[in-house]
TrEMBL record, chain A:
<dbReference type="InterPro" id="IPR002346">
    <property type="entry name" value="Mopterin_DH_FAD-bd"/>
</dbReference>
<dbReference type="Pfam" id="PF03450">
    <property type="entry name" value="CO_deh_flav_C"/>
</dbReference>
<dbReference type="GO" id="GO:0071949">
    <property type="term" value="F:FAD binding"/>
</dbReference>
<dbReference type="GO" id="GO:0043885">
    <property type="term" value="F:anaerobic carbon-monoxide dehydrogenase activity"/>
</dbReference>
<dbReference type="InterPro" id="IPR016166">
    <property type="entry name" value="FAD-bd_PCMH"/>
</dbReference>
<dbReference type="InterPro" id="IPR016169">
    <property type="entry name" value="FAD-bd_PCMH_sub2"/>
</dbReference>
<protein>
    <submittedName>
        <fullName>Carbon monoxide dehydrogenase medium chain</fullName>
        <ecNumber>1.2.7.4</ecNumber>
    </submittedName>
</protein>
From TrEMBL, chain B:
<feature type="domain" description="2Fe-2S ferredoxin-type">
    <location>
        <begin position="4"/>
        <end position="80"/>
    </location>
</feature>
<dbReference type="GO" id="GO:0050138">
    <property type="term" value="F:nicotinate dehydrogenase activity"/>
</dbReference>
<dbReference type="Pfam" id="PF01799">
    <property type="entry name" value="Fer2_2"/>
</dbReference>
<dbReference type="InterPro" id="IPR051452">
    <property type="entry name" value="Diverse_Oxidoreductases"/>
</dbReference>
<dbReference type="Pfam" id="PF00111">
    <property type="entry name" value="Fer2"/>
</dbReference>
<dbReference type="InterPro" id="IPR036884">
    <property type="entry name" value="2Fe-2S-bd_dom_sf"/>
</dbReference>
<keyword id="KW-0408">Iron</keyword>
From TrEMBL, chain C:
<dbReference type="Pfam" id="PF20256">
    <property type="entry name" value="MoCoBD_2"/>
</dbReference>
<dbReference type="GO" id="GO:0016491">
    <property type="term" value="F:oxidoreductase activity"/>
</dbReference>
<dbReference type="InterPro" id="IPR046867">
    <property type="entry name" value="AldOxase/xan_DH_MoCoBD2"/>
</dbReference>
<dbReference type="GO" id="GO:0005506">
    <property type="term" value="F:iron ion binding"/>
</dbReference>
<dbReference type="InterPro" id="IPR008274">
    <property type="entry name" value="AldOxase/xan_DH_MoCoBD1"/>
</dbReference>
<protein>
    <submittedName>
        <fullName>4-hydroxybenzoyl-CoA reductase subunit alpha</fullName>
        <ecNumber>1.3.7.9</ecNumber>
    </submittedName>
</protein>
<dbReference type="Pfam" id="PF02738">
    <property type="entry name" value="MoCoBD_1"/>
</dbReference>
Length: 287, 158, 747
């Protein structure tokens, strides 16, 4: 195994693109090192990207924020601006692992790991976040929703490096929330999860809604019908019930050591409901 | 596997070592530098026994490649006391019987100090969530939480 | 050794919260645990493990691994000795498989190499051919006549005829006429229960550093609950003489019973003998879960009859425990402990030990008792619900007390169950209001406690300080307690005593640190050793003063004249006597060697409030209070620590911890991520109330306190959850999917 700290993104892409063996990009390392320890993967090349330009920065941009790929959960949680604009995304990121893991883990790493149970991903999908990718052919932007393609798999091509995630501006009366279910209070992988982002009219009527679920399908899913069930309502019981039904109908989970199909489906609906109500309250809606 | 030559700072002292690219900071601390205060309870970031500070952030040293620490500042349990003068947390942990077997203690002390530097007056709940990544199988955590509170109160009063 | 006549004396040291002697080492990172030791030129050992739950080993080809540069030794089962005793042969075959691999993770071969990377590469070059066999991991399945047989010919004469060969032994306890008893009952409840296997979950993986020469002389450093036991096992398994193997116990990072046997030490010694170099062997966390002792999993039927006013008329339990791939005896403890808290006219317990394709069970804190008492206390709680009775009053009405013929045979002497129940009843927790979706549960718990072989030396140093030498690894602060008892007896300050835990060549044999025996038995031997030293000092002072030995007594750390004929002499302190020891007969020491009996049984009562989330099945522990009889709390902090720690292990067992096997017989959660021990944020404060009902078998009244506390949480939580959720939960852990399903089926 070689460990390399390239001088710039171009070199980083070229290194990974040109590696014939197995390569891994290292940011926070909280997934990669676990895989090394478990001997799940033995990379020939590790490319550390933390030191590259912009990787550790959070920058205000067009009313939103661009979050560098190596920004840790702890750093994100300390950023009052992002926390105020996208509290659901920040709380999702902060749920990952322990305080120690938060000192290293990154949102982009969470995304690239390709886990359907990744905590930050439903929140980013609900937020309609966009990943910026540096590849062999230059730079491009791809919605976060389109990055995961299955457990442990992504749509990234060889040589691609996600350099940042962009969380867009949002109007007044809008907010988001994220909830997951785990058997303990900390340190577990989500059994099911839900990220919800809402935009309200001044009178509290829901104008736009995005509901994303985790750990209930091969990838994080955006449940458009669930969002649609909320639009035009003030989140009355019928609207919530319709949203939950749409969420449950989308679930296509597996039964494993962490939960059954039945349990994941039921819990995803419950979490979607609870996250919706939190987001609604945060956006200034009153029930 | 070609080895790396790394220069770093550990507990304020300059340290240089040679390591394989797949060795972790924990491997180097324990196997190359003789700093065995950080423990390997799991090697996968689930137990916190290997907690150290890396550039001012609390991390699991088992989840850091040693090669990443070039130019970094590392603080371990061995640097917590000032000579023979124990850190308040260390002394209070003994006084309040916050340890039984003691294997998790170095990691918990490093983590608790990081908490109190950030939040000098935490609630019990804040302490419990901050330390959720530090497993202790002996104490049931009760005396640990009380010791952190007692140390925090003492540190605030100075 | 009976309770002192003056046991109600004012203790000067006992009961104080003194500072532990190993504190500074443990808060500064200096303390040396199993994996912290190194030796010049040492090699790194690693173990190859079976990917199959059950398979015949057709062949092991180590040639390619041996040819790898940097590999210095490879060992397999054939490199170990052939002990006659099956007990040791089983440990050998668990350390390295012989003929068959019996569970996922079973060790097959081991290498010693110059570094970790080389050792890892070497493992991959070892070619093992397996013939995969059918496997069984569930206890009820394994008892069926057509179940795959884990090992043939291992059943003893007690095993019932016609059952599967996996059933290795059977036990029965009880007294009275069951049929007559059940006939008198107004209500009978009969239920079946299951508990999952749980792991001790110590944070320190097994680790050792071994050096063994071709002359059979060896040194072994390891984390263990008993260095003498390690010596015995390794001597047998490696074919060396006990006197030639010196075993030194490191500081130990938790054990809870799991470090009372050997998994890697004989392997490291064999690698060292073959390579001619010291070998360090440290398990990974995954290896700890896959190949070291979890406790048994269980399947139990309990039937209890009760009158409408709450008197139990008859009780029966049938317990089936699987202890992994080798015969184990654990069900005997469960069958004995099941009804220990009750004064019963008619009681019967039946137990079966069963083999499965799982790791060899190791002791876990009160082994066998928690799962049996969980089942019994659940049925008692349900009877109380059905009959509209107060669960505490009902237990008081049926409580075992002095003079009760216990369900397992002995008649109880002074015991603290009624006192703990009364304390729980008087505690504000018992009557605190509960909210919606909340429930309160309680359970009694019991453990026998143990004495055993113990050997202590106590040396009076020339400067008047004292050294105690003992042989039991300090797993939770026992060095402080032992020093306290020495100081109390000698009448000197605690700070003047230092207790060290020595190696196997420096003191006589000691049983392992288990059975909650150390504060009781080592304490007892220390007190006796101190009394021997006092006697010796009084003799010397009598000679100095020219009076009879009988005319000298020991008061407050000094010899003084006693009685009318003693004359007038100023007292001679311990330090003064020590200073002139060279003129009065040389060094002063006291010793005591004993196979201690008289360990007093210990009872506890736990109260627990839980809240269940009706939409997710999650359980939150809101409040938890432990009441336990400590006999005499030598160091109250560490008594409380045992009560709290055991409770939290029990909470984990009740709610989340379990060994999960796939259909392929492989363990699916061999790590702290999915083997979910409680984390700090899962828990409320664990309140403690120590009762002190002196044990008649110890001079200060000490009882063991370490194990009882893990027994009640299983039922206390299950009862609280069952009441909160309105549905009786009979399988542990009560994981959220299980609880949600039960609630939805309840309607």
């Amino acid at each position: 195994m070689r460990y390399v700290k390239p001088e710039n993104l171009k070199d980083a892409s070229a290194l990974i693109g040109g590696e014939e063996g197995i390569s891994r990009i290292l940011a926070g390392g909280t997934d990669v090192l676990v895989q090394l320890k478990a001997e799940m993967v033995e990379p020939d090349l590790i490319v550390d990207v933390k030191h590259l330009d912009g990787m550790r920065e959070i920058v205000a941009e067009d009313g939103g924020y661009r979050i560098g790929a190596a920004v840790s959960g702890a750093e994100l949680g300390e950023h009052t601006g992002v926390k105020a604009l996208w509290p659901g995304v920040v709380e999702a990121m902060e749920l990952i692992g322990s305080t120690q893991v938060q000192g290293r883990a990154t949102m982009v790493g969470n995304l690239c790991n390709g886990s359907p149970a990744a905590d930050s991903v439903p929140a980013m999908v609900a937020a309609d976040a966009v990943a910026r990718i540096h590849g062999l052919a230059g730079e491009r932007d791809i919605p976060v929703l389109d990055i995961p393609t299955g457990p442990g798999r992504t749509s990234l091509a060889k040589g691609d490096i996600i350099t940042s995630v962009f969380l867009p501006a949002r109007p007044d009366h809008a907010s988001d929330a994220y909830l997951r279910f785990i058997p303990r209070t900390e340190m577990d992988i989500a059994v099911a999860s839900a990220g919800v982002s809402l935009e309200l009219d001044a009178d509290g009527t829901c104008r736009a809604a995005r509901v994303a679920l985790g750990a209930v399908a091969p990838t994080v899913v955006l449940v458009e019908a669930a969002g649609a069930a909320l639009v035009g309502t003030k989140l009355d019981d019928a609207a919530i019930a319709a949203m939950v039904q749409a969420a449950e109908a989308t679930c296509n989970p597996i039964s494993d050591k962490r939960g059954t199909v039945e349990y994941r489906t039921k819990t995803a609906g419950v979490l979607a409901k609870r996250a919706t109500l939190i987001a609604y309250a945060r956006a200034g809606g009153q029930k | 596997m070609k080895k790396l030559h790394i220069s770093t700072s550990i507990n304020g002292d300059e340290a240089q070592f040679i390591c394989a690219p797949d060795e972790t900071l924990l491997d180097v601390l324990r196997d190359h530098l003789g700093l065995t205060g950080a423990k390997e309870g799991c090697g996968t970031g689930d137990c916190g026994a290997c907690s150290v500070m890396l550039n001012g952030r609390l991390v699991c040293s088992c989840l850091v490649l040693a090669g990443e620490t070039e130019g970094a500042e590392v603080e371990t349990i061995e640097g917590m006391a000032n000579g023979d003068d124990l850190h308040t947390l260390q002394r209070v942990f003994i006084e309040k019987a916050a340890l039984q077997c003691g294997i998790c203690t170095p990691g918990i002390l490093v983590a608790a100090r990081a908490l109190l530097e950030k939040n000098p007056d935490p609630t019990d709940t804040e302490i419990r969530y901050w330390l959720a990544g530090n497993l202790c199988r002996c104490t049931g955590y009760d005396k640990i939480i009380k010791a952190v509170q007692a140390a925090a109160a003492e540190m605030r009063s100075v | 050794m009976p309770l002192d006549q003056n046991s109600k004396r004012d203790f000067k040291v006992i009961g104080k919260r003194v500072l532990r002697p190993d504190g500074i080492d443990k808060v500064t990172g200096k303390a040396m645990y199993g994996a912290d030791m190194t030796a010049p030129g040492m090699l790194v050992g690693r173990i190859l493990r079976s990917p199959h739950a059950h398979a015949r080993i057709v062949s092991i080809d180590t040639s390619a691994a041996e040819a790898l540069k940097g590999v210095k030794a490879i060992v397999i089962n054939a490199d170990l000795a052939n002990p006659e005793d099956e007990f040791f042969a089983d440990i050998r075959d668990n350390c390295l498989a012989r003929e068959k691999v019996l569970y996922d993770g079973h060790a097959v071969a081991a290498v010693a190499a110059v570094d970790k990377a080389t050792a890892k590469s070497a493992l991959r070059l070892i070619k093992v051919k397996y013939e995969v066999l059918p496997h069984v991991t569930d206890v009820d399945e394994a008892m069926k006549a057509d179940a795959p047989v884990v090992q043939e010919g291992r059943a003893d004469e007690s095993a019932p005829a016609g059952s599967s060969q996996n059933v290795t032994s059977h036990f029965e306890f009880g007294h009275g006429d069951l049929d007559a008893g059940f006939a008198k009952a107004d209500k009978i409840i009969e239920r079946s229960f299951k508990t999952a296997a749980t792991h001790q979950g110590y944070i320190e993986p097994h680790a050792c550093l071994a050096s063994l020469g071709s002359d059979g002389r060896g040194e072994l450093w390891c984390c263990t609950q008993g260095q003498y036991n390690v010596r015995t096992i390794c001597s047998e398994v490696c074919g060396i003489e006990a006197s030639q193997l010196r075993v030194t116990a490191s500081e130990i990072g938790g054990g809870f019973g799991g470090k009372t046997t050997c998994f890697i030490e004989p392997v490291a010694l064999a690698l060292s003998r073959k390579s001619g170099k010291p070998v360090k062997l440290v398990m990974t966390r995954e290896e700890v879960f896959r190949a070291t002792g979890p406790t048994v999993s269980s399947s139990t039927d309990v039937k209890i009859g009760m009158t409408s006013n709450g008197r139990i008329t008859a009780a029966q339990a049938k317990l089936r425990y699987q202890g992994g791939a080798f015969p184990c005896g654990t069900v005997e403890f469960g069958a004995q402990a099941a009804f220990a808290a009750y004064d019963l006219e008619a009681v019967q317990t039946l137990g079966w030990n069963v083999m499965t394709n799982r790791p060899k069970e190791a002791a876990y804190r009160a082994p066998g008792a928690p799962m049996a008492i969980f089942a019994v206390e659940s049925v008692v709680d349900e009877l109380c619900q059905e009959l509209g009775l107060d669960p505490l009053e009902t237990r008081l009405k049926n409580a075992a007390r002095k003079g009760t013929l216990s369900s397992y045979g002995p008649t109880f002497n002074d015991i603290g169950l009624v006192a703990t129940l009364e304390a729980a009843k008087a505690h504000p927790h018992y009557t605190a209001p509960l909210g919606e979706n909340q429930g309160r549960g309680l359970s009694c718990g019991f453990w026998f406690n143990f004495g055993g072989n113990t050997c202590v030396s106590l040396n009076i140093n020339p400067d008047g300080t004292v050294g105690v030498v003992e042989g039991n690894p300090d797993i939770g602060g026992s060095r402080a307690s032992i020093s306290m008892m020495a100081a109390e007896e000698l009448g000197i300050p605690y700070e003047k005593v230092r207790t060290v835990i020595t190696d196997t060549n420096s003191l006589g044999f000691n049983d392992v640190t288990d059975g909650s025996r150390v504060t009781f038995a080592v304490g007892l031997a220390t007190i006796k050793a101190a009394r021997a030293a006092i006697d010796n000092m009084c003799e010397r002072v009598a000679n100095i003063w020219g009076i009879d030995r009988d005319a000298v007594e020991w008061v407050d750390g000094a010899a003084q004249p006693a009685g009318p004929n003693a004359g007038s002499h100023p007292p001679m302190s311990l330090a003064e006597i020590a200073a002139v020891a060279d003129q009065t007969g040389g060094p002063i020491a006291g010793h005591h060697e004993v196979n201690a009996d008289g360990a007093g049984v210990s009872f506890g009562v736990h109260l627990c409030d839980t809240e269940v989330d009706p939409e997710t099945g999650a359980t939150k522990i809101l409040r938890y209070t432990v009441f336990q009889d400590a006999g005499r709390a030598v160091h109250p902090d560490y008594v409380e620590g045992q009560m709290q720690g055991g409770s939290v292990q029990g909470i984990g067992w009740a709610l989340n911890e379990e060994y999960i096997y796939g259909d392929d017989g492989r363990l699916q959660n061999a790590g702290f991520l999915d083997y979910r021990v409680p984390v700090a944020s899962d828990l409320p404060p664990i309140e403690t109330v120590i009762l002190e009902i002196p044990n008649p078998g110890h001079p200060y009244g000490v009882r063991g306190v370490g194990e009882t506390s893990i027994v009640p949480p299983l039922a206390a939580i299950a009862n609280a959850v069952s009441r909160a959720a309105g549905v009786r939960m009979t399988e542990l852990p009560i994981s959220p999917p299980k609880l949600l399903k039960a609630m939805s089926e309840r309607g």
